[in-house]
Amino acid sequence: MSSRRMNLLYRLAEALAGGEGLKIIECLVRNGDMRDDELALELGLKPNVVRKILYRFAENSIVTVQRFRDEKTGWFYFKWRVQLDQVELYLENQRQRILNRLMERLRYEETHEFYSCPKGCERVPFERAVEQSFMCSRCGAPLQYEDNAYVIEALKSKIKELGG
Amino acid sequence: MPSSSGRKRGEIERLALQLVNEAGDKGILQSELWKLIGVTSREGSRIAIRLEKKNLIRREREYSSKRWTYRLYPVRKNHPLLPILDSPCLVCEDNSRCNIQDVVSPLNCRKLMEWVLKTQKSS
Question: What CATH number labels A3-82?
Answer without folding.
Answer: 1.10.10.10
